[in-house]
Amino acid sequence: HTLSKSAPLLCVLRHVSLDENPSYEALSYTWRTEARTHSITLDRNDFPVTVNLYLALWTLRQEHDDYFIWIDAICIDQND
Predict the structure, then answer these.
(1) Cα(22)–Cα(38) distance, rounded to whole angstroms?
(2) Which residues have a Cβ under 8 Å from the Cβ of 55 and sit 6 or more positions away?
(3) Of 5, 27, 59, 79, whose Cβ has the fewest other Cβ atoms within 10 Å?
(4) From CA 65, how far away is CA 70, in angstroms rounded?
(5) pLDDT (tens digit per residue) in 6-43
(6) 48-57: buried (b, 16+ CB within 10 Å) or exposed (e) per residue?
(7) CB of 77 within 8 A of CB of 54?
(8) What are the φ/ψ torsions at residue 53 (nearest 5 degrees)?
(9) Is the CA virtual torsion 25, 29, 5, 79 positive or negative?
(10) By the 8 A CB rule, do 73 and 55 touch?
(11) pTM score
């Protein structure tokens, strides 16, 4: 399926125990200060992300239907 680049990236945050052996993919990249100039919808709220994360999610959306992904930039407090 092909989606427009203007279509919003809709994400849902789920808390899952690793004891349940969940199936997921992980997305991690260089840790550095980078402006969060783009936005995704996370649990119905705007969530600022870097252009690199936005483009990665947009690309992955083109390749997959719904699936679970662990993203360090979201799951780990980047301000702490």
Answers:
(1) 29
(2) none
(3) 79
(4) 16
(5) 778 889 999 889 899 998 888 886 666 678 889 999 99
(6) ebbeebbebb
(7) no
(8) -65, -45
(9) positive
(10) no
(11) 0.77
Whether 50 and 68 have beta carbons less than 8 Å apart is answered as no
46 strand-pairing partners: 41
Query: Using alpha carbons only, what angle is made at residue 28 by residues 74 and 62, rounded to the nearest 5 degrees?
Result: 85
* 43 Ramachandran zone, left/alpha/beta (phi>0; psi -120 to 50): left
* Closest of 8, 16, 3, 10 to residue 70, by C-alpha: 16
Is the CA virtual torsion 12, 75, 66, 59 positive or negative?
positive
Coil, helix or strand for 65? Answer: coil
The single residue listed with the structure tokens 């980047």 is: 78
Share of residues in the chain with pLDDT > 90 (%): 21
10 token code pair: 């809709």
> Rounded CA gap, 14 and 33, in Å?
26
